[in-house]
Amino acid sequence: MFVENYRKVRSEIDDACRRAGRQPSEVRLLPVSKTVPVDALVESWPELAAAGCAGLAENRVQEAVSKAEVFREAFGEKAPHMAIIGPLQTNKAGHLVSCADEFQALDRPKVAGALQRRLADAERTLDVLIQVNVSREPQKSGLAPSHAAEFVRMFGPDGDYPNLRLRGFMTIAAQNDPNVRETFAELRELRDSLLGDLPEGVSLDELSMGMSGDYHEAIAEGATTVRVGRAIFGERSYKK
Fold first, then answer.
1. Which Gene Ontology terms cover its molecular function (predicted)?
2. What is the pLDDT of residues 117-170, one digit of tens each?
3. What secondary structure letter does DSSP report for 173?
4. Of 118, 125, 182, 187, whose CB neighbour count within 10 A is largest?
5. Rounded to the nearest 10 degrees, how much is the dihedral formed by the CA atoms of 228, 229, 231, 233?
6. What is the pTM of this model?
């Protein structure tokens, strides 16, 4: 069932790209597998990979760590690329470094510093996206748009976090926002405003925006990654 849903969403993404005058290859579909039992993911992964899926995303680091261990045991080098898309506490930086290939929710220098120390000790690098709270919701994680330029300047080989490879921005739009496309457009415009003065080695090519309910609008505004959970894995089952 997961594979059928993945193919359906991928087809809809491809159609949305064509409507926007873009190539389907420009947009990555990143399935969000939070709360999905790892046994079900292991069973489905060979078919998902054959359908073109390269990785999975998790919100909680603890869940990602346990799943990544199972994936490595089951698939070795063919295990899913693991992206963390939820906020990180600094005391969990080591756990993230142990399991993640990508972190999309970097929102403040303190977290970047904790990751830098752990990555330097592990002698590895990590692709990161800065999460920007474009919708300006107080309950949401993310950097204020006005602080993005200052944070971006702290990256690069000669910056404060040489082991963090900045690749772009991520945002989460407000639920049921009738003006959601404006949110995505603002992130794209923010990114474009910074392209002329980036530190060496820094890229802002990635715009991770759009989820199950709004990825069509995100693609129209330049998303390069859409994070889709419910449309692939169904409604979530949360432990009380």
1. pyridoxal phosphate binding
2. 999 999 999 999 999 999 998 888 899 999 999 999 999 999 999 999 999 999
3. P
4. 187
5. 140
6. 0.95
Alpha helices in 101-147 (DSSP H): 109-122
Alpha-carbon distances, residue 234 vs 6, 28, 29, 34, 226 (angstroms): 11, 20, 16, 11, 16
Q: Which residue has 């998303």 as its token pair?
A: 223
pLDDT digits over 186-225, tens only? 999 999 999 999 999 899 999 999 999 999 999 999 999 9
Pairing of β 81-84 and β 164-170: unpaired
Our CA dihedral for 143, 216, 16, 218, rounded to 10 degrees, sits at -20
Q: How far is CA 167 from CA 34, 105, 162, 163, in A?
A: 23, 12, 13, 12
Which of 226, 214, 186 lies closest to 85, judged by CA?
226
* Cα distance between residue 194 and residue 229, in whole Å: 31
Residue 113 structure tokens: 């510093």
Q: What angle do CA 66, 113, 200 make, to 5 degrees?
A: 110
**Closest listed residue to residue 170, CA positions, set 92, 93, 84, 95:** 84
- The whole-angstrom separation of Cα 82 and Cα 102 is 7
